[in-house]
């Protein structure tokens, strides 16, 4: 059927995730489910580590178009294992798969970061095909941000690199992306080149029996038909792709085709556009692509509110909230080094959603005001409608109150997260300052001593004594730094706590020689405990706590003082305490001694950096399922203590 006027539909479709379609790598099989089952079975029998990583990446690729969460799971496993065995090719592919996973979630920042890491690794390896694919993916990222010139430049370079690699199957993917980025060009020559690229991509897909790429090409060719006014033929082609994708388990393909049809139908003001929106939502929920449906859910919500269908409106709001919570979990599961960046993106998206919701609410209220004016006129003629209108008003009031409470809750959560981020940022700056100070001091001392020796300002014997003192301080600093590194390792998602039986008295005796300040001040350490008392703990983590307790006690004790270490069993736990005879702890500092706030406000006993070490001690003890604390003694000094589960008796 030909329409009298040409309807330019492609610009409308830019509002849906059209370019994400081309992120899906191709595969040469029509049996999606059978391929997955075969690969999973083969993976169980694979002994070679590199082949195992390749299998994980292959499964991640296959799952991209049907089950997104499984894609992310296998890609994450591939990246971890490839890094452990130094398998660069597997790591490059795994990073690119993770980038695609986060692109579909969608989390564009994490997606870009993983793509960029893949690009860097591919360049170092000289892998032209992987360089081309990473450049193509980053070009898509720039296209999303509206940075058209950067996107076009990168897709052109990607096309050149894939020619060098002589990989036709991947070339088809790059050509299809080239079409997407140039299809809406107003220049006739550019559009002709884009259509030629699409035709070549379709030919390559047929030549290699690339089922998924064939379906992609049909969807894009349907767009060209729609642009040419052949709407009925285009719609028929898209419906066939949707049915084929659904039958073979390609949920994302069916989702995209449904959104494409919904976009056309909406542009043509046809009522069955809602049917395709609902289909798209169903496929998204089946395949874990809910993050891509935010705008669709908002449209469905607005339509339900317009029809006064509060039941479905509440359902869509609930889905949207669930998606936002899932997005937050996805961001937290990203690499720890990208968490701050991802959190900023989450706050930005949340604020945008909040702004959009408020604007929609104002528009709804404005519509209600208009309605009320007509209602007052209509009331003079139709008094019989008064009862039904009063019911409607009551329902609208309940919805408004409910939405206001939800909005207030979201604002409170945002405020709390912002405050926590500020505290964490202050702590990070304090930690960096401490590490820089502690490592700079021994180096400055060594430089000063070498200058003195060079200028004959001090004799060599004196310089030797000074160097020995610097060596002692450097060893102490290194112990602290080792503890900080271990603590940073425990903050990562891969840390696994594996406790062992530790005899407290043996640990204390091993720690005393390492605390050089005890010998310098001639401090006596009294150990009051049974030799058999032992706890379940990590040896290095517990020794870090012991070194800090003894170092702090020695630091604030007088020359020749006594430090008492006690261990007792109480209420099925082992309590260990270290008491000194120093000046005690400032009572204003004591309540927050082990918290992040203390690092920026504490004065205490004027111990530079002690707050950071105590925070790490607290984190170590809590990871070992224990408790830590400190109190001032009745007469003088302070006592630091911790409690841990006892080791089982042998």
Explain this structure.
The protein is an alpha+beta fold and 650 residues long. Among the domains are: 15-288, Tetratricopeptide repeat domain (Serine Threonine Protein Phosphatase 5, Tetratricopeptide repeat, Alpha Horseshoe), CATH 1.25.40; 500-644, 2-Layer Sandwich (Heat Shock Protein 90). It has helices spanning 10-13, 32-44, 49-63, 68-84, 88-104, 108-125, 128-144, 148-165, 168-182, 188-207, 211-227, 231-247, 251-267, 273-287, 294-306, 310-332, 339-379, 386-454, 460-491, 504-511, 516-520, 539-555, 598-601, 610-623; strands spanning 500-503, 524-528, 534-537, 562-570, 573-579, 627-632, 638-644. The strands form two sheets. A five-stranded mixed beta sheet has the order 2-4-5-7-6. The chain has a two-stranded antiparallel ribbon with strand order 1-3. The protein is extended. The protein starts with 9 loop residues before the first helix and ends in a 6-residue tail after the last strand. Residues 1-23, 26-30, 340-345 and 600-609 have low confidence and may be disordered. GO terms for molecular function: phosphorelay sensor kinase activity. This is histidine kinase. Residues 434-648 form the Histidine kinase domain.
